[in-house]
Structures are given as C-alpha cells and as structure tokens.
Amino acid sequence: MVGITVGMLVSVAAVGTLVYNRVSSTMVADTVALQQDAATVMRMIGRQLKQTGAVPVVNDPLAPLKFGYQDTYLGLPQGTPTPAPVSVDGTNVASGDTLRVSYTYNPNQAATVGDCMGESPDPTIPAERDIINTFSRGVDGQFLCQGTNQPNAQPVVNNVEELQFWYAVRDPATNQLRYFEAGGFADWTTVEAVQVCIRLAGTSGNNPTVGVASTGCTGQAVADDGRIRRVFRQVFTLRNLQSQG
Q1: CA–CA distances in Å: residue 72 to residues 45, 90, 102, 105, 126
Q2: Burial classification of residue 88, based on how many CB atoms lie within 10 Å of its CB (0-12 exposed, 13-18 middle, 19 or more buried)
Q3: What dihedral angle (degrees, nearest 10) is formed by the CA atoms of 100, 104, 107, 111?
Q4: What is the spatial distance between Cα 192 and Cα 86, in angstroms, rounded to a whole number?
Q5: Of 82, 218, 229, 244, which is the most exposed, with the fewest CB atoms less than 10 Å away?
Q6: Is the pLDDT at 197 greater than 80, yes or no?
Q7: Which residue has the higher pLDDT, 126 or 16?
Q8: CA 187/CA 166 separation, integer angstroms
Q9: d(Cα 204, Cα 30) in Å, to the nearest integer?
C-alpha cells in the first residue's frame, strides 16, 4: 500500500510537471512567433518609410555642378490649387489605420528597386514612375501590403488585432514634435516622423493568466481570452523632407 501510494504521488507530480512544461513551451513559442511577426511588420514598413520622399540625383549638364534632382516625382498629390508631391499620408479608421508612402527612382535603375512586395516597377508605365506602398489591416486580421500598381493587397502577417499610425508634426510655438492621428493636422508636408503601433495575438488559448486584461495601442483595456497578446511600437524619422513640396 505504501508503495502504491508513493507511486501515485510521483505520477501526479509528473503529470503536473508535464502539463506545466507544455503550457510554458506553448507560451514561449507564441511569444517568439509574435516577436518575429512584429519584426517582419516593422522591417517592411521601416524600409519604405526610410526611403519616403527620395528623389534620385541625375546628370544635368546645364546645372552649375553638372547634376540635379530628378523633377518627375509626383508622389501623393494633395492640396489646392497646386498639389504638392506629398510623400506620406494615411487614414484613421476603427478597423485599422492605413498608411501610404511614396518615393521615386532613377528609371535606368528600376530593376534594382522594389516595392513592399519586392516587385520592380516598369518606368514605361506612368502609374509606376513612383514607388507607392499601402499598409493596412484586413477585416480578417491580416497585415496587408499593396505595392506599386498592384490590384490587390497581399497578406503578410496574421492575428493582427490593431494597427495604428501617428504622425509627428512640429509645433511652431514650442518647436517640439507632437503626434497626431490622420485628420488631426492640415498639411501632410509637415510630417517629420511616423509612429507605428501593432497589437498581435497568439494562436494558443492556453495562457494561464485567463481573465487578466491587457492594453492596446491607445491604452484601452483588452479582455484576455486565453491568448497571449503583445503591443509593439516603433518610430521612423522621414529622412527626405527636403524633397517634399
């Protein structure tokens, strides 16, 4: 009887340890997957934002220094009566914000550049003379990328619960940057940086902290349904402000 009792206690302890290890390994796997997905999103958006507004240098025999900037950049025309070649804009919607970025390229080097999906533009097609990328969240929770002149956005990452963008505009009174949602300021050419926030959810429902609320991109409470959630933020400075307008 003593042997049976001891054996049962050892078995119960072993099963408990096995369950705990299984839950822990699932949590670790989900956490690593969320970090990898977030890195993919930030790398894709950041690569395009760092080039936003870029205009290549071209030979210009008439210029004093024999070179100049390509003057065919159209960007994202906005404003009246004379549209300015805005390099970044977006929308603010409840289901997930949309961000558009644009820049141009040397037609002779079109094969060396690519949009967010890696597609090289065709400089002979007017609609592809600028690189334009659109980032958004699909209704089914996918992070979407739509490249230059592509008819449909392509899914990149799943389980995206929230995608938000804020735009940094310098306050002329204090000379400090302030962040606004799309629609919170009048002139897109004044944007100096973009803050990206994404909330991702894991696939496993074995999170042991069921019932504990987490927070989203705006600090709102998000009820826990057993899945791990993580919020990731990053700020990207626009490097090519001199080419706007």
Answers
A1: 24, 23, 13, 10, 11
A2: buried
A3: -50
A4: 12
A5: 82
A6: yes
A7: 126
A8: 14
A9: 7
Cα(123)–Cα(101) distance, rounded to whole angstroms?
Answer: 18
Secondary element (H or E) of residue 11:
helix 2-49
* pLDDT tens per residue across span 124-136: 998 888 999 999 9
User: Which stretch of DSSP H or E encloses residue 235?
Assistant: strand 229-237
- Kindly indicate the confidence band of residue 27, based on its pLDDT and cuts at 50, 70 and 90: low
pTM across the whole model: 0.82
Lookup: tokens for 161: 């619960």
Residues 180 and 223 sit within 8 Å (Cβ to Cβ): no
Alpha carbon distance 230, 97 (integer Å): 18
Q: Does residue 64 have a cis peptide bond before it, meaning omega lies within 30 degrees of 0?
A: no
